[in-house]
């Protein structure tokens, strides 16, 4: 540990470095290419949307493994362009409890589950991408 970092303190700079490195990796990653990491993520640029609140939530959709890469490309691009929520992520393997081993979960985070306009706007964009059977799950 560096001398300036007491042993019990959280090193936020190190955490940010790791997160930034992961996002660089995730820029080109496709869900079908990885199983070692569970999630691949994309983030909206800082300041493009209001910061998430304690009442955040997410749109979820289950996809088949053979369709997840194409959907992820669209969602990732829209997230980075600031057209969706503050972050999106996609699973690279089935989650515990998913009905079929070929299922993948795609999630689009919203900053405030109580902001009905933003939640509806994001849903509308996802529907135009051809995503169906969307489920909204608030964090609280």
Task: Give a brief description.
By secondary structure, the protein is α+β, with helices and mostly antiparallel strands. The model has no long low-confidence stretch (mean pLDDT 86).
Question: Can you tell me about this structure?
Answer:
This protein has a five-stranded antiparallel β-sheet with strand order 1-3-4-2-5. The protein has one domain (12-138): RNA Cap, Translation Initiation Factor Eif4e (2-Layer Sandwich), CATH 3.30.760.10. The longest helix is centred in the middle third of the chain and has 16 residues, at 65-80. The chain starts with 11 loop residues before the first helix and ends with a strand. 31% of the residues lie in helices and 21% in strands. The protein is globular and about 45 Å long. The protein has helices at 12-26, 65-80, 116-128; strands at 39-43, 57-64, 87-91, 103-110, 135-138. The protein has three helices and five strands, in the order H-E-E-H-E-E-H-E. By secondary structure, the protein is of the alpha+beta class.
Secondary-structure topology with pairs:
Layout: H1 12-26, E1 39-43, E2 57-64, H2 65-80, E3 87-91, E4 103-110, H3 116-128, E5 135-138
Antiparallel strand pairs: 1-3, 2-4, 2-5, 3-4
């Amino acid at each position: 540990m560096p001398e300036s970092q007491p042993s019990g303190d959280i090193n936020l700079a190190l955490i940010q470095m790791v997160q930034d490195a992961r996002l660089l990796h995730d820029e080109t990653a496709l869900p079908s290419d990885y199983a070692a990491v569970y999630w691949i993520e994309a983030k909206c640029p800082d300041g493009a949307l209001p910061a998430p609140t304690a009442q955040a939530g997410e749109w979820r959709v289950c996809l088949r493994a053979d369709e997840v890469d194409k959907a992820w490309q669209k969602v990732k691009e829209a997230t980075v362009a600031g057209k969706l929520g503050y972050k999106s992520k996609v699973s690279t393997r089935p989650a515990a409890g998913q009905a079929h081993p070929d299922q993948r979960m795609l999630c689009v985070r919203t900053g405030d589950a109580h902001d009905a306009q933003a939640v509806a706007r994001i849903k509308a964009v996802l529907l135009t991408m051809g995503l169906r059977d969307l489920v909204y799950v608030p964090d609280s």
